[in-house]
Structure formats: C-alpha cells, structure tokens
Write a structure and sequence with these properties.
two-stranded antiparallel sheet, alpha+beta, binds iron/sulfur cluster, globular
C-alpha cells in the first residue's frame, strides 16, 4: 500500500492539468517526495512543547489515526531559475507557483483524502479540518494548529534551516502537505543527525548565503524574523506585484533560490 500511495501522489502531480506554467510545458511542481510517520510518534507530543500547546495531535484531528502521510513538492527548475536573478521581490513565475502551485497542492490533499476514503480508510487533511486555526501572537510568532513542515520532519523528509525553511533531498524550494489516515503504514526512520543538520550554518558555521538574499534583513546568524518576513510576503510584495502578475499571493522565496540548499542538501553537494 505504501508504494501504491507514493505512485498515486506522483501520478496526480505529473498529470494535474493545472500544474503548468502559462504558455509553457514546464510544471510548477516536480516529482514529489513522500514519507510516512506514525500518528502515535511521541514527536507530535514534543511539538506541543516546541511550537505551542495549540498544535494538534494526529488523533485529535482524526479519531483512530494511525499514519501521517507527508509530501514535498519540489518547485521546478524553471521557476527557481526565474527567481535567482531577483533581488527585491519575487519573479512572476514564483508568484504564480505560490498561488496556482499551492492550488495543485490543495487539490492533492483533497484527492488523497478521497482516494483513501474510497478504499475504506478514514482520512483528513489537517489544513482543511474545521479544527485548523492560525495564531498570530505565540512565543514562536505566527503559527498554526498543524505545521506541514513539522509533519514532514516527522516523516524523515528533511530538516529545518537558518531561514526557517525545510531542507529536503530536493532542496528548500518546495510546497509541502500532509494527510492523516486511519490506515497503518510503515513509518520512515529518521536518519538526520539533528533537526537542523541539513543546513550548513548549523552543520559547520559556514554559508549564511540566505542572510544576504533577504531584501528586508529578516535572516541573521541568530535566525529568522517571521514578523519582518511577513511584512514583505504579505505586505509590500502583494501590494506592488499582485496586480502586475495577476496573482492574489506572490510569496517571496528569495532566500530559497541562488542559495546552496536551493535544490539539494548542500552537504551532499559538497
Ligand atoms: S543558504 Fe546556507 S545557511 Fe541559509 S538555509 Fe541554506 S544552507 Fe542554511
Ligand atoms: S521569504 Fe523573502 S522576506 Fe522572508 S526571509 Fe526569505 S527572503 Fe526574506
């Protein structure tokens, strides 16, 4: 069943008619990485301490939850390349991916929930649960009751970064998602040395390229300021660009492109 699920997720992304840049054969999103974690993994209890007591456990989102299915949807090479030359605001292709690539990701969440349901396995996409909430003022800044990236970490798909991103074998430039199901699947074994080990800054104190890529100084050797970042991502950028690009969301992603971790774990590249 694990292989069948992986194939279905990959097939959906490869054939989704909306997964295409306008006037191009290039997709927004390339072949997914997929991982599974056990709904009973104590790491989900840890997230209540690390993120906040508002972060939900899998079984709170789905009674009899057994598995959390997580995926990484790598942002395509042509979209990443378009953002590399940007220094102030994201490229049009990046903004389109933030909006329409994320629509494809949402469709994948709904599709996998329904696909499992048709096979008799209860499932829910945390992002679309009525229990999902966003919290504006927490000790870790803006946070929600389910973190897709933390679910991906639980499933062994990567580690966190200085820029507050998530570095996977396909890099830091991606969209990610998850579905919780009552179907028991074999969980991944986490092999990272730590939850930060894919980032060169934490590995050996080097790199820091993302610091100079950020146009608003939201990243320093001390970490990432969610507030400064949001000001650009949800303030300046949409105001300046939404009309020009025709996208409600623009994102930014400058710190995810033209950096050593853009499309791989930089340690492996070395
Ligand atoms: S650019 Fe370097 S320091 Fe920044 S997240 Fe990537 S690996 Fe870490
Ligand atoms: S997304 Fe943009 S504003 Fe936010 S930290 Fe990265 S470069 Fe800075």
């Amino acid at each position: 069943m694990e292989e069948l699920l992986c194939s279905e997720i990959k097939r959906f992304i490869a054939t989704h008619p909306g997964n295409r840049l306008p006037d191009s054969d290039d997709p927004y999103l390339e072949e997914p990485l997929v991982g599974f974690s056990s709904a009973g993994d104590p790491i989900f209890q840890d997230y209540r301490r690390i993120i906040g007591p508002f972060h939900l456990l899998p079984e709170e989102l789905l009674p009899h939850a057994a598995t959390v299915i997580s995926w990484i949807l790598p942002i395509s090479r042509s979209v990443r390349e378009s953002n590399r030359s940007q220094t102030e605001l994201p490229s049009r292709e990046w903004a389109l991916t933030r909006t329409y690539g994320e629509t494809v990701n949402g469709d994948l969440r709904r599709h996998i929930t329904a696909w499992l349901g048709e096979k008799g396995h209860a499932a829910v996409a945390p992002q679309y649960s009525p229990l999902w909430k966003e919290f504006g003022d927490t000790p870790v800044g803006i946070a929600s009751s389910w973190s897709e990236r933390h679910a991906a970490y639980a499933a062994g798909l990567g580690t966190f970064s200085l820029s507050d991103g998530f570095i996977t074998p396909r890099g830091i430039a991606h969209r990610c998602g998850s579905v919780i199901t009552a179907l028991a699947l074999t969980p991944a074994v986490r092999t990272s040395a730590s939850h930060l080990s894919n980032c060169l800054h934490y590995h050996d104190g080097s790199c820091g390229v993302c610091i100079s890529r950020c146009p608003v100084g939201a990243i320093s050797r001390d970490g990432h300021s969610k507030d400064k970042c949001r000001e650009l991502v949800y303030g300046t950028a949409p105001a300046a660009l939404s009309e020009r690009y025709g996208t409600p969301q623009t994102g930014c992603g400058l710190c995810q492109t033209r950096v050593p971790c853009e499309a791989q774990v930089p340690l492996h590249k070395r």
